[in-house]
Write a structure and sequence with these properties.
about 325 residues, mainly alpha, 2 strands, about 0% strand
């Protein structure tokens, strides 16, 4: 025998008034849906603009846009994106490799090791690093970091010259891929550290206390209870940092020597990126030159989308940790 419990107005009981539910959820659903559609529309508008502006330059290109190692859209009207895309990916990947372990260590120290009196100010200090203008990082890199890296670069070349990244002959140090990658790593470090810290703080306290109760050390507790739970968040933070590194303009434009070749030798002056090339060449570009730069921006747009889609696939495979901690 079943009994239907009905409200005073005749409707089934749901734990909250139907009028309040309908009045609150309707506008929120509309606003959230409109925001999502607007975001997609903006992305589509950007893509359409880039494609429309790039097509005339691509049609006028006398070389291969995807394979040529030359950039002369204002002269011979031959230009290729291969060297710039290679430099963008390599510098951003190096920056990510340098910044992520340090950022995760900083986040773990603030969230699980530092005293409360120190954790708050240190967290604010790390967050403030993200507010420093990129031109300041670039000037600091040119005036301080580039001369400082000459001797370490020479030591890396002498000791590990058998490895392709540290190989090279002639000039070692100066404005190199390594210098640019270090500056990019410092720029993206606060982003990764701040997001990772917040994710680690959300780790289930019951799991942490259970690990400690079983006799685990603090590091073993972090390794078993905190890092698995925070892995999707760390990946998301790293991808946000990677996106900024790929799109960074002024800092790398001041440091990179603006070459158009492909070289894995990060200690020699061979470096460039799509964003730096746009910053360096847009003011002097003609009609074809501007179209070529916009076409390179379209390539950067596609690379960024592919990277974020790949990151999303990785995060979706780790959802069981988020469910376990809910």
């Amino acid at each position: 025998m079943t009994t239907n419990v009905r409200t005073r107005g005749g409707g089934p009981a749901t734990g909250r008034p139907a009028s309040r539910r309908s009045h609150g959820e309707g506008p929120f659903k509309f606003i959230s849906t409109a925001a999502g559609v607007l975001l997609l529309a903006i992305m589509a508008a950007i893509a359409v603009f880039l494609i429309a502006e790039a097509i005339p330059a691509l049609q006028a290109n006398k070389g291969s846009f995807f394979t040529d190692l030359i950039w002369e859209p204002n002269g011979s009207q031959r230009f290729g994106i291969l060297a710039l895309a290679f430099g963008t990916v390599l510098s951003s990947a190096l920056a990510l490799i340098i910044a992520t372990p340090i950022a995760v260590g900083v986040a773990l120290f603030i969230s699980h090791y530092a005293p409360r009196r120190l954790a708050g100010p240190l967290g604010y200090l790390v967050d403030l690093l993200a507010a420093v203008p990129s031109v300041v990082y670039g000037l600091w890199g040119v005036m301080f970091l580039v001369p400082l890296l000459r001797e370490p670069s020479q030591w890396l070349n002498d000791t590990f010259g058998w490895f392709p990244l540290f190989a090279g002959e002639g000039a070692i140090g100066g404005k190199t891929m390594l210098a640019g990658a270090v500056v990019l790593a410092i720029m993206i470090l606060p982003i990764i550290a701040a997001i990772s810290r917040e994710v680690f703080l959300q780790a289930p306290k019951m799991n942490e206390e259970a690990a400690l109760a079983l006799g685990a050390t603090r590091w073993e507790m972090i390794r078993m209870a905190v890092l698995p739970f925070g892995q999707p968040g760390v990946i998301s933070a790293a991808m946000l940092g990677l996106g900024r590194a790929m799109g960074e303009t002024i800092a790398v434009a001041l440091i990179f020597p603006a070459t158009f070749d492909i070289s894995f030798q990060i200690l020699t002056p061979h470096a460039n990126s799509i964003a730096a090339n746009i910053a360096n060449g847009f003011a002097e570009a003609g009609q074809i030159g501007r179209g070529a730069l916009i076409a390179s921006g379209l390539v950067l747009f596609v690379i960024t989308l592919l990277v974020n889609m790949g990151a999303r696939l990785v995060i979706n495979r780790r959802k069981e940790f988020a469910r376990a901690g809910a």
